[in-house]
Each structure stands twice: as structure tokens, then as C-alpha cells.
Amino acid sequence: MRFDGLSTSKILSVHVIAGTHVVTLGMDVKESETKGLLGFAIHRTDHKTGDSYWLNGLRTFEAVYPMPPPGALVSTMEHPIQDFVWADYTAKPDHQYTYRVVAVYGKPKQLDLRRAEVSVLVRTEPEEHPRHSIYFNRGVIGSQAYARKFFNKDPKEDPEAMKWLARGLDKAVLDFIGEARTTEHALRAAVYEFTWDRVAEALGKAHERTSDVEIVFDSRYRKPKPTSSEATKKAAAETRKRIDKVKALLDAHGLLEVSTPRTTNASYISHNKFIVLLKKGVPIAVWTGSTNLTESGVYGQSNVGHIVRDPDLAATYLAYWERLKSDPENKDLKPENDLASPTIAAFPPGQGTTAIFSPRSDLSMLKWYADAFNEGEEVVAFTAAFGINKVFHDTLSDPNEQDLRFLFLEDWSNNNKTVGEATKKVVNSNRNNLVAVGGRLTKDIVEKFLRDRWKEERSNSLSRNVKYVHTKYMLIDPLGPDPVVISGSANFSDASTIENDENMLVIRGDERVADIYLGEFMRLWNHHRFRYIETKKAEENDSDGYEAWYLDPTDKWTKVFYKAGTKLKKRKAFAGPLAASR
After folding, report:
1. CA 478 → CA 148, 260, 406, 509, 574, distances in Å?
2. Which tens digits make up the pLDDT trace of 396-424?
3. Domains plus CATH for the chain?
4. How far apart are CA 115 and CA 37, in angstroms?
5. Is the peptide bond before 328 cis (omega within 30 degrees of 0)?
6. Is residue 506 classed as helix, strand or coil in its secondary structure?
7. Under 8 Å CB-to-CB from 200, ≥6 apart: which residues?
8. How far is CA 486 from its chain centroid?
9. Cα separation of 236 and 504, whole Å?
10. pTM for the structure as a whole
11. What gap in Å lies between CA 2 and CA 567, rounded to an integer?
């Protein structure tokens, strides 16, 4: 939900976008009033608990606090936020808060908090909703918050650490399965990686209650030839091992006999992660998203679970599941998917929620995603776990495009250096492309470039391959009145369009959905953007005079937000309607 406030002097306006766990504040100050502006102090009152205090940051004024201990938090009342967009990542769902934002003037040891302030009453979104319930895990084992709270211990050693990392994603999927309570209910699941014992146990118990749980699981395996490379043989062995583990887990919980292995077209993968809930034979809801039902998916890499309670949409998923259950050849499945979920003709898509299923007969749906990406007028946000498909390259390199593109990548090209360098060249050719690549603050970076001001961060021990971003979603003008959110299992690639079993949601016009997704995207993008910059500096051995640990003691930090460039666009995009009306 979105909220606005304006100071009585009309110097300062605040636009607030409240998701479930993230509240984003867009501050705006008249340019004529930026002289002497040192930043913003932010105070929060929680009307449910009664807690009331100034929120914290990490950066300090050197003259006031020159050598804080690693990871120390400081009050924004004494060390203000020097940005026009800031977010509170400690908010809770369905809470009412008052955010008091104060423009801070003066000098570091003589702060003036009297010139302009705004108080905005805010309510965060509940996670559960009659139509769209959305659950993001934290996805940040390598973080200052984890280092402070859990001292970088292995999360498997501490149940509270695992609970903190899941942030309700684990409970949400177990609760969804738990809705199948009686013989009136049924569940139909399509899964890829499936090694999390708790969810298998939940499905097994649901089957005991309902006698009507069925699963389609990925069992595609291509036996390597004797002449195959060692890398190919190793990959095949890993696939075989994964499939055997899934079968063993299903068997352990009495599910193997009601599970169908997907085996045809062995070169492809059955990449779905969805569950359909039925009552009296009628589909009523679907769980979908990017989350593999593994410890890595739920607790490690960043992921989303998305419930849609819509019988019509759930029926399309059930029909798709039934097509998959017959284990058809792709050549037979493709035209059926095309018919059931036709390629969207143009942008914008129709209002409401549309499902798109793969494999498809051609790449026209992927081309539509790229065209949709190109339609953004103000902000586009995009996650890419395995690199950016070439169909997006023309848009990314177009110097005439003026919208901001926030890109969050696991790496540049799934570890293909040649492709990665080509993609990097395309992306870097346009200054409107703002990239964050997954990373953490290693000991070397902390000691050499951050002067021990930050804590060293641990690696993601729960995930072998994808460590940071596993989500697959795109947001087109999420700050506007008619946002488009695209989310699901597919990686916006050739393979995810014409080869693999995949599903996607295209959601138009739902501000609540857009607000939740945008807050979580920017949380992760900002987190990894800083680490990406520091990692590049370390790789290039370039300190460039940038002191990430200290605040600017003057108002010079504001200048770039009022000159042509990405920071001006970002300030305006997040500032909201009151700033535009002044």
C-alpha cells in the first residue's frame, strides 16, 4: 500500500511503499532547500507493540564517530541517511507504523532537526490475502544482519537461524499443504528438486488424510556415452543421484506409488514447483513461484512462494498437471500448452492474472517478455539467476531508453566467461542499466577496502550452485498505477520457453502485488549492489578514494540527485505524487 506526507513548510515530502516485510521511503526536498542538508533521520513507532525509536544505519560522520566497531549500528538521528530512497527491512506484516522523517541540516557536531519533518501513518500488507499471498525468504546468509545476529555460524547448527532465513516461507508451504485436511480435499504437485524431508512428510500426512495426493516429479536422465567428456559424465552422475534421492524420499513417506516420473525428452528438465489444492474435485488454489522444495530453496538462495486463490486459474494449472502426468513427448505437449495459454499478443497484457505454461512451440513468449521489458516508462526490475538472454540485449543497449533498469544477477552468464563478457559489454553500454551481482564481504574485502568497518560475511553453506538469487521475476513500472508483475519458475531463456516444463504468472494492475515484489527486489538489489561494487574494487585493486564507511560532512552528497543521471531518475521515480505537485 502507498502513503504520502508533506511537511507544513512544503520543503520535504515522503512517499511510502509498504509491502509485507519491507517499507520503502522516497524522500524529496526542493532543490533550493538542499543547502546544508546532511541527510534524513527516520523514527518509527509500532502501534501494535508500542515500540518507538530512531531507526539505525551503518555509516557515520568521521568527526563524530571515527572508529566504530565492525558492524556497529548507529542512530539516524545522529548519523542521517544520505540518500533520497531508503527502506526499513525490519517491518512486520499487517502492522501499523508511524514513520517520522526529519530533514537534517547543519554540521556533523551541530545538527539542526527543526526545519522540516513529515510523519506518515503506514500499514504493512498481510502475507495472507484472499487472492495473492506472497512469501519471500530472506536469502541473505552472507549479510551484516546474519553476522551480527548469529555470529556467522553454520545455519544448520541453529534452528533460530534457519527460521530467520526462511522468514515464514517454510511455514507458508507447509500450511498450504496442510489445507488438504479431509477426504473432500486433494493435492496435485509438480516438482523439480525435491529433497526437503519436512515437505515430503507433510505431503505424506496429507495423503493419509485425503487418500488423494499425486505428484509428478522430474526423472529425466540422459545416460552419457562412453566417449562423453568427464564433465558430461559427472553432470549425468549428479542428475542420477538427485533423482534417486527424490525416489527414496517419496518412498519413505508413502508417496512413491502416487508419483509419476517425468522421463521423456531426457535432455530437458521438469522445472515446475507448483501444488494445486482441490476441494470436492474442484481446484481452488495454487502454490507456485521459484522455490524448489529443498533446504537450499527455502532457507538459502533468495526465493518466493506465491499462492493464487482463484478457481479458474487453479483449473488451468490442474489441466497442465494432467498433461504432464501422461509424460508426453514435448512435440505433443507444446501445441497443447500453446492452446491452453496462448502467447500474449501485445503489451500491456490483459487485466488480472494470466498463466503461461512451457514447453511452447516457439520463442514468441520470450520475445513478448523482452518487449514488455522495453515498455517500461519509469522503472523496470529484473532478476536473472543464469544470465541475461540475448533477446533482451537490444533493449539493454539502446541509449535512447530513459527508464531505469534494475538488474539483479547471480552471475553474468552461468559461469560462461565468453558469454558473460559479451553480456557485460551490452549492459554497461547504457548507464540506465543498474546492475547488482550476488556476492558477500569476504575477509580480504573487509580488511583491505573497508578498513574493518564491516563484519566479514559467511558463504551460503546450504546451496551448492545458486548461492544468491534463484527468483525469476520482472516488474514493469511497479511504482505506477498500472504495474505488471511477471513471476514463476522460468528463467527467461530459450530452454525455459521451448524445452523445459515451466509455469509463469503475468499479473497486471495489482498494486499490492507490485508493492510487495518491488520492496523485496530493492532489498536484495541494494544489498548486493554494494557488495558487487566492493568486490570489483578488490578484483581491480582500486580504492578510488571512495570511503563507504563515512558520511559526507557537507551537502555535496545531494548534488548528483539533482543532475541528469540515474540518481536523479531514481529520486523522482520514488518521490511520489506530492513531490511532483510541489
Report:
1. 33, 39, 12, 9, 10
2. 988 767 789 999 999 998 777 888 888 99
3. 2-123 (2.60.40.10), 168-327 (3.30.870.10), 356-546 (3.30.870.10)
4. 10
5. no
6. strand
7. 194, 249, 250, 252, 253, 255, 293
8. 12
9. 28
10. 0.96
11. 22
